[in-house]
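Good morning C.,

I know you're traveling, so I'll keep this short. The sequence:
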Amino acid sequence: MADYFERVVTDGWENVSEDAYELSSENFLGYDGPSWHISNYTLTGGKQQGVELVEIDNGCMTVLVVPTRGMGVLEAFTDEVSLGWSSPVRQVVHPSFVEAGAAGGLGWLTGFNELICRCGLSYHGAPGEDVLPGVAGMQKRVTLPLHGTIANTPAMRVAVRVQLQEPYELSVVGEVPDTRMFGPSFSMLSTISTVPGSREFAVQDVITNLGAMPTEMELLYHCNYGPPLLGEGARLLAAASFVAPRDKRAQEDMATWDTYGPPEPGFAEQCYFLRMHADDGGQTMVALADPEEETAATIRYSVEELPAFTIWRNTAADCEGYVTGLEPGTDYPNPRLFERQKGRVIELAPEATYRTRLVFGLVDSEEEVAAVRQEIAALSEGKDCVVREAPDPDYCP
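The tokens, ready to paste straight into the viewer:
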């Protein structure tokens, strides 16, 4: 007997859809914990017509999941603080309106506004050319647009689950096929879960190679934060073991790679490539602390699953998207050809799986932020951090 209640709200395989479904703690006799509520609904109007959202309100934090956009997380919020950012893209854009190859391979940006979106699965990173083996030993050249396809691939099956014993975990489970003819084919089973009354939620993914041959896989979690956490003087707290600027533009502010400036019209983005220290179990934590260090967003993850980390700084004017990206990944968001040459692109055997788990949290007091800072500092206590003042050719094309 299953230890959870499950309700399928979308099943493309069976051509089933249940819009405006609602489930709450009141539906479970004998439950005496914090009140919670789960609902799903479909957006209308403009480019968001037909986009499905699932809302999980655990009684303390609400998490908005977008199955139509690759099981991304639009935002998470409490009564006091919102995690996410204000993108120039105001609508939750349906993937049918995203033309990946537009604007020189930057079409992905026309739908970019989530708190968490995945990049991958066969490739991610900057647009660029790749060289692949072709028929009869002939090489073929392909142009790969920005950040891959998974963020613009709708889930085929979506279910909500409620654990029937403590801690009564609330989950949205989505099955996302990222497949094509004559090319890589993957499935992603994503579970986004939270516990009633908590200020945390987890994202757990299982990637499976559906093909008959070993296949390259890249995966990056583009986790994006704006105000109120981001502001002049906000700090990234991280147990870094290595830091390098991506290019000369990032090199200009290498002395303040972990500190953010105010909104600046026309700001040109900067990226920094990091590796992290971890505990004995391979777990690390990063945090974005607001300028007063009264509130912080945290991300816990495994460096064995996601060994690369990228900071994306775009402290442009508010109307241009004042935002930073904290990005754990299997490798760095460079063109795949470069990452392959450096030995960082994963190869999955037929039917093999790759698993990741990240936990996103919010702390909202000076004492809690101080405890987070202390925990992160302990990860690197007595350990070195190599800081490159210029782009490192092993990390930067």
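Safe travels,
E.
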